[in-house]
């Protein structure tokens, strides 16, 4: 091969040395219950060697509802941490200096509000905002395609995202303003080629929106990042990452005229596949995760989360989370794969698979362009239908035995295969504690100041001003996620999936 790692179009990696200079960021996605419980887990994981914090938020927080909302009942703290206010965010990062750790926050519809809380905590710590490093997911298009935690219709949601692009470019130069996510597209049942195509099509839509808002491509594109799934088809997954990197570089250079090499680089986080984990014979998941994590590393990921063996049963226990982290550490420090950039580059099958996936993804991108772009395609249900068809074909192959899932449709050992595996026990009383704390916050704050800042946010939404300053002002006086979301709902409306 004539192409070298670190050279356009970056098929072989975005840096010449790749992991020889520094290993990927090792994250463990975590969050549950109240801020105090999650804070304890973060301190534990940091003591075990993670190099970046990754925050999971509960569904009410993701959907713009406070913990005492009627629809939040039974969901508070279940699949992530409940964060309603600045006070919760302060507790979440108690004892963790935000200018010394990279933080990833998996949040979309309410991303601007959670980032505002994070920035205010950093200010109160005396941190230099120019040194804050991390990523806010902030990817709303994949919510309409594959996941469903949307609030506002697509077009006003895109405005919030481009406002955040512009604000972070000025205020947080080291912060990734979006993590364009193929992970959830793959978890919903897409093929590898669809994961590349629909993820990059979302990325193209975000770049188009930012340009339409008056931003210059090389001012914001260097801080775009991506998030991919690592599934179990080992060689295909390695090739997928290489193909995605090459295709994005060409799109940015040829379609958008980006000249800064950092604008052309596809930097990405990877998570091993949750959908591949089985409740049957859960120890098998250790093997699956190891293979998937190795594929991500051989494919050149910039950061990685490894799922835990018990996640098909419950939230991970401390022991399982530690073992998942150790999997990354063993790959990084013991296997030798980090000493070579793009170890499988030049392998005939990997090169052929890279070419195939790029070709298939390009065909999807052409089809989406013909439809008028990704927003139009989503409104017409095109990517949703393609993913549903692929998911159906996969499930049919599993049910007929054409595709083997070890321990499920072959080599099953018996009905009690998952018995005896210790699982995380959620404390249901945490919801009541979170609600009581939220109500005490409302009682103790300056109600007039809160109302004034919420009114200012509503006025900003009705106009064209960047929303981030108004969100920050409201967050600072302890306006809640639900209150800010409700004001924006009043202006933008709520999205309802057709059918």
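^ Assign residues to that structure.
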């Amino acid at each position: 091969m004539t192409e070298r790692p670190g050279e356009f179009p970056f098929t072989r990696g975005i840096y010449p040395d790749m992991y020889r200079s520094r290993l990927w960021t090792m994250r463990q996605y975590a969050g549950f219950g109240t801020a105090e419980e999650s804070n304890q887990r973060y301190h534990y994981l940091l003591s075990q060697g993670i190099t970046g914090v990754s925050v999971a938020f509960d569904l009410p927080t993701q959907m713009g509802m406070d913990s005492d909302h009627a629809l939040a009942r039974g969901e508070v703290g279940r699949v992530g941490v409940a964060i309603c206010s600045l006070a919760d965010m302060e507790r979440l990062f108690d004892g963790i200096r935000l200018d010394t750790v990279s933080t990833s926050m998996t949040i979309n519809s309410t991303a601007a509000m959670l980032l505002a809380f994070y920035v205010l905590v950093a200010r109160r710590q005396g941190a230099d905002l120019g040194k804050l490093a991390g990523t806010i997911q902030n990817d709303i298009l994949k919510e309409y395609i594959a996941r469903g935690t949307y609030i506002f219709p697509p077009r006003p949601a895109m405005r919030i995202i481009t406002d955040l692009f512009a604000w972070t470019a000025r205020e947080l130069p080291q912060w990734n303003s979006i993590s364009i996510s193929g992970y959830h597209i793959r978890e919903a049942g897409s093929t590898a080629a669809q994961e590349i195509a629909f993820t990059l099509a979302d990325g193209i839509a975000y770049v188009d929106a930012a340009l339409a808002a008056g931003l210059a491509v090389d001012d914001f594109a260097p801080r775009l990042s991506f998030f991919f799934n690592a599934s179990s088809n080992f060689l295909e997954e390695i090739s997928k990452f290489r193909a995605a990197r090459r295709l994005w570089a060409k799109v940015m250079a040829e379609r958008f005229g980006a000249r800064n090499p950092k604008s052309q680089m596809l930097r990405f986080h990877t998570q091993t596949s949750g959908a591949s984990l089985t409740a049957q014979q859960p120890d098998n998941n250790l093997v699956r995760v190891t293979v998937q994590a190795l594929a991500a590393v051989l494919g050149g990921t910039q950061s990685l989360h490894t799922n835990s063996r018990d996640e098909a049963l419950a939230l991970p226990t401390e022991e399982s989370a530690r073992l998942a982290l150790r999997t990354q550490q063993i790959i990084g420090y013991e296997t030798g794969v980090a000493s070579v950039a793009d170890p499988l580059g030049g392998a005939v099958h990997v090169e052929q698979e890279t070419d195939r996936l790029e070709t298939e993804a390009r065909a999807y991108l052409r089809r989406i362009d013909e439809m008028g772009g990704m927003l139009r395609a989503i409104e017409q249900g095109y990517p949703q239908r393609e993913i549903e068809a692929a998911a159906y074909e996969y499930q049919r192959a599993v049910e007929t035995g054409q595709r083997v899932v070890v321990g499920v449709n072959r080599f099953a050992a018996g009905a009690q295969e998952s018995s005896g595996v210790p699982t995380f026990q959620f404390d249901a009383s945490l919801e009541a504690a979170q609600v009581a704390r939220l109500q005490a916050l409302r009682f103790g704050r300056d109600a007039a100041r809160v109302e004034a800042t919420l009114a200012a946010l509503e006025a900003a939404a009705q106009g064209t001003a960047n929303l981030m300053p108004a969100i920050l002002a409201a967050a600072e006086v302890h306006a809640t996620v639900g209150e800010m979301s409700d004001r924006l709902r009043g202006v933008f409306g709520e999205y309802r999936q057709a059918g």
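The chain has one domain: 18-400.
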